[in-house]
Amino acid sequence: MTIMAEATMGDRPDGLEGRVDAPEERYNPYTGRRVVAGVDDAVPTAAQLGLEPPRFCEACGRRMVVQISPDGWWAKCSRHGVFDSIYGGRR
């Protein structure tokens, strides 16, 4: 299990991943690029170490507003709401 898997939007409590109308496309939360099966997308080293919050929404690829504090961070997508580091067990 990688650090990236711990802090993904799939851990959100609103359950986007289980809904019938959930988007088929997924985006890298650190680069904003569309995730393509079989193609590796470079994840920054700081993100792998859990030091960098996601900057892009994993559901739509939009840039998020990110606030970093001493005890964690939160990121807000204009379409999908707030994702807090506490959801990924980072706080």
UniProtKB/TrEMBL annotation:
<keyword id="KW-0408">Iron</keyword>
<comment type="function">
    <text>Required for the activity of the biotin synthase BioB.</text>
</comment>
<comment type="similarity">
    <text>Belongs to the BsaP family.</text>
</comment>
<feature type="domain" description="Biotin synthase auxiliary protein C-terminal">
    <location>
        <begin position="64"/>
        <end position="86"/>
    </location>
</feature>
<dbReference type="InterPro" id="IPR058605">
    <property type="entry name" value="BsaP_C"/>
</dbReference>
<dbReference type="Pfam" id="PF26519">
    <property type="entry name" value="BsaP"/>
</dbReference>
<feature type="compositionally biased region" description="Basic and acidic residues">
    <location>
        <begin position="9"/>
        <end position="24"/>
    </location>
</feature>
<protein>
    <recommendedName>
        <fullName>Biotin synthase auxiliary protein</fullName>
    </recommendedName>
</protein>
<feature type="region of interest" description="Disordered">
    <location>
        <begin position="1"/>
        <end position="24"/>
    </location>
</feature>
<keyword id="KW-0479">Metal-binding</keyword>
<keyword id="KW-0093">Biotin biosynthesis</keyword>
